[in-house]
Amino acid sequence: MIRLTDVRKAFNQGRHNEFWALKGIDLRLAAGAVTVFRGPSGSGKTTLLTMVGALARPTSGRVHLEERDISAMPERFLTEIRRSTFGFVFQNFNLIKGLSVVENVMIPAYPVGLPHGRLKARAMDLLERLEMADKAEARAEWLSGGEAQRAAIARALINDPRVLIADEPTANLDSERSAQFLSIVAGLKRDGRTLLMTSHDPMVAEAAVVDRVVSLRDGRQVEAR
Asked: Using CB atoms within 10 A as the burial measure, which of 39, 74, 91, 200 is most buried?
């Protein structure tokens, strides 16, 4: 489904502090699979996710989504691809304080233009599936870490994306909450979604639901299983 060919990414290119975060990544990521990227801080994991999710462009190389080369597409097309294809769960969840949980979940779908009632019903259905319906009207800042994560997952799913991208999704969770997250991942996989995650957590990398682990170091792929 997703193919990366000799993907390289530089920051501050041409300056004294030039840094190459990715140094020639070649990968094929299968549809419907759970892939975990692991490696030490600075290995390029998060940068790789931003390339795959069309949040940033490679300095060189190509990223293909199915048969489309999305590496050099104009931003207006990338915006639509991000909205329709990818859902994102960021490490700190990035929920907006002062808004309710259900309002946070609805935000990515506003540009789609659905009637408010239908959109709220969809958001409530997702919260129900994630056992968060009782928190729908609570403000985001009132949530525990596990609750904030489930709200962020619901928000990532509001546009029914085929691919869910999660950056260190269990970094702020204890073992019990991490196990709950992996149970959610298993359900999403059964739904046919593709899941791409970065993680330092052995509990995630070694989980039975994970199909593939890709190890990175210094911007290069060093191991895959």
From this structure: 39
